[in-house]
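Listing 4. Sequential folding, example run.
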Amino acid sequence: MKKFLVAIMAVLFSAPSFAQYSSGGFSLSESTLYYGIRLGANFSTLTGDYFDDMGTRVGMNLGGVIGIRVSDSTPVFLESGLYYASRGAKEGKSTLTTHNLEIPILIKYGIQATDDIAVLPYIGPYFAYGLGGKFKHEVSTPLGTVELQKDDTFDYMNHFDMGFKIGCGAEYNKLYLELGYQFGVTNLLKEEISDDGAHNGSLYVNFGVNF
């Protein structure tokens, strides 16, 4: 793990500046196309009565993005990409995890905060598909004891999720940092499990580099 983190940092600091090509840093008026990598953490939970006793679970984000300027007169960019995100919920010994592929479609607006820093607020939808996951939860046995049962998450939940992301990024030379929140609007809970709805909610922070 230590060698892996060192390798990531080496890539980040040796990469060419996103500011020279795209929406960040020093050349908002000249940028057209950019791409980048993202690595970060999310703090996710599930809303709805069925999971109301479960709290926040910490997961990982990893992805690549590509963006293009959509206006010659203003620094407005359209960004998409492909992410892996581990999300879910947790409370005590009960843990629900999902491993997702996610495609966001974001509108970003570049603001030159200083000579060295660009600020990029954004909003847009995301589309996700759950590849797998586990639901560990306590169940009562006929003998009156409690055991930890392990099930496939998608025995309870639907694979597809759609929602919206809102956040703000900042770029300094090669480096990019963002903080945002995403909320699902599709009901994840299968109808045969319960009539209660369940939706994703996730606060996230990502660090990366833009080329």
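-- end of first protein; second protein begins --
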Amino acid sequence: MGRTLFFLVLAAASACSRSPSELSASPEPSTPPAPAGSMTFPHGGNAHGMPHAAGSTGPAARPGPLALQWTDPPRWQSRLPSTPMRSKEYRVPRTGSDAEDAECFVVTFGQGQGGSVDDNIERWVKQLQPTSSAVERTKRTVNGMNVTRVEVVGTYTPMAMPAMPSPGAPKQGFRLVGDIVEAPSGFWFFKMTGPDATVKAAGKELDTLIDSVHPS
């Protein structure tokens, strides 16, 4: 009897000395390891530390039909616009010894938006810091719509945009060819920039594209 009482007292003392976590009836479940080759990020985010948008399952959908239509130059490569402001974007393959390709993009803001023709041409010319005062400017009519074309050569400084806050370093020996189409849906801006020889060679392709524009 005395020995039994001794063991009961010893067991009670041992239980009292344990911490609450040791007495827990069900231990905290452990997080299963990630599969081989995968990466995990906090809060369901991605590799940039940003949370995934609710309901997003893939890339943003391409924009629907545009209010102005045209025929793409066969040599140009259409690509997904790098900023939502652009309706269309093209890579224009380089010519000869030019070190990089040119690009052409299309922007529209709707009726009565985006400033006047003169305002936009002035902004384009300022971006080029022209090496001379020579700025080629012509006007024509395409399918009942006024079109203003401008061409200038100089040192190109891209504009900063919300999606691209850092415009990059100025580039010497660049050419800009731009067309402003006064369509029923508003002004449409077609702007091609790149190394001098590449843009000069592609100027006729842009002219042919503009000749094909028509309201949809």
